[in-house]
Write a structure and sequence with these properties.
By secondary structure, this protein is an alpha+beta fold. It contains 16 helices and 18 strands.
């Protein structure tokens, strides 16, 4: 890449959009996964409009320059890790949000944070349900790129269930405007679903039309303490046969203690497993549902159950669960998993992870969106010790293999990124991988979009 070619990009965009200063570029090399393999880009394009994204992609396509799209940088799988000699195309400045109350949709630019969409919807008595634990710092563009889930998706679904329309810029700068404000639309191939979860490898989202629903009803919260994580998971399996809770979160013994060390909020350090379950059923049905949940938990061995209808108390328990990632970040280097299995096999997955942790002498606390079988084992190790890193990396690979062996997935919501790309063929198989690559080749023939990620 010559200086003249890069200057042409700088001159083609408004002043301040393209950053080349090393101290600025450095800030865009990593996402939250802190991928040690991240490269150094030649520039960062901080786009402010769809047209600027098109200009950047046309330039990159003409010169064969790889482009890594980036939202808030809160990704956990290395999907926004920069590559050497490429561009980082940041959407952080595209933050507009419009609420169409009549159509019950939000028209959102990709840099808007999840929490900002929730707040804007709430002003109209509406709700945007997808709620990653990082909802206060993650962007809608990143949520769409990874098909993010969250705590309430056990009842309300994941990001893809709320995307009605997308503006997507392809590698050559072509703009596709997919879907719209209509609820039902089966005309043509379902290209929306193709781009949701594609991790920036097929195109870059510059606008989204998101479905909103009426505000969530009041919630009741149950916290149950179990002697083991397996017993807590068995309760999750049992309650799924009779109720549809709006949130079912699990913490194992180590996770409870990691969070208690971090927050000091009085969690029971002796507990082998902890469940936080919520019901938002209407009216008296909520009381009946939470009573069934308590009965199920006690039958599964819960030693204590605490019930509250107080929203602040309920949020305090959720704050403990949401604090898991920052709590582990303080303990050392991390490898972050989000493997999932069919819910009936959740107890076996938790036992398997515990066995892997012991075999590799690696600290692996686990939390889970237990109601949908999605777990988050965080592997903690001393990053300055090569032997500790090697043990953690071996455990990381074994956990993914375990999930696949149980009929599960290597990623429930974080995406494949660069961290899990090597394990994707083992889950999908050669035929699906071949079809995936043909789609990639059709939309991005030069392979400039997020190379090394996802596919």
């Amino acid at each position: 890449m010559s200086a003249e070619q890069l200057t042409a990009l700088v001159n083609a965009l408004p002043e301040g959009v393209v950053a080349t200063a090393p101290e600025t570029v450095e800030k865009y090399r990593h996402d939250w996964s802190r991928d040690p393999r991240a490269g150094t880009p030649i520039a960062v394009v901080r786009a402010e409009s769809t047209q600027q994204v098109q200009v950047a992609l046309r330039w990159a396509s003409a010169h064969g320059i790889p482009v890594v799209p980036r939202g808030a940088g809160s990704g956990l799988a290395g999907g926004a890790s920069a590559v050497d000699g490429g561009l980082v195309l940041s959407l952080e400045r595209m933050r507009a949000i419009e609420i169409d109350n009549a159509s019950r949709v939000a028209v959102v630019e990709p840099g808007a944070l999840n929490v900002e969409v929730k707040q804007a919807a709430a002003e109209h008595g509406l709700w945007y349900p997808p709620d990653p634990s990082s909802f206060e710092i993650c962007s809608i563009g990143g949520n769409i790129a990874t098909n993010a889930g969250g705590l309430c998706c056990v009842k309300y679904g994941v990001t893809a269930d709320y995307v009605l329309g997308l503006d997507v810029v392809l590698a050559n700068g072509t703009l596709l405007q997919l879907g719209g404000r209509r609820i039902k639309d089966v005309a043509g191939l379902s290209l929306l679903k193709l781009f949701v979860g594609s991790e920036g490898t097929l195109g870059i989202v510059t606008r989204a039309i998101l479905r909103l629903v009426p505000a969530q009803p009041p919630r009741s919260t149950l916290v149950a303490v179990f002697p083991t994580a397996r017993a807590a998971a068995e309760a999750v399996v049992a309650m799924g046969r009779s109720v549809r809770a709006c949130l079912v979160e699990l913490m194992d013994h180590r996770a409870i203690n990691v969070v208690e060390d971090f927050l000091g909020m009085g969690l029971d350090r002796s507990a082998g497993g902890l469940l936080v379950v919520q019901s938002d059923a209407p009216g008296t049905a909520r009381t009946a549902e939470i009573e069934i949940i308590e009965t199920v938990c006690r039958a599964a061995g819960a030693s204590e159950c605490y019930l509250t209808d107080d929203p602040d108390e309920g949020e305090a328990f959720l704050a403990a669960r949401r604090a898991f990632f920052p709590a582990t970040e303080h303990l050392g280097s991390l490898l972050i998993e989000d493997v999932g299995v069919p819910v009936p096999l959740l107890p076996d997955l938790l036992d398997g992870v515990a066995a892997i942790a012991a075999r590799h002498t690696t600290d692996i606390p686990v939390v889970a969106h237990a109601g949908d079988g999605n777990t988050h084992p965080n592997l903690i190790f001393d990053g300055s010790d090569p032997a500790a890193r090697a043990r953690a990396e071996a455990a990381f690979e074994e956990i993914m293999a375990l999930a696949i062996s149980l009929g599960g997935t290597i990623t429930g919501e974080h995406g494949v990124g660069r961290a899990k790309r090597g394990s994707l063929p083992a889950q999908l198989g050669p035929e699906i991988m071949a079809v995936t690559r043909r789609i990639k080749d059709a939309l991005d023939p030069a392979g400039i979009l997020n190379p090394g990620a996802a596919i």
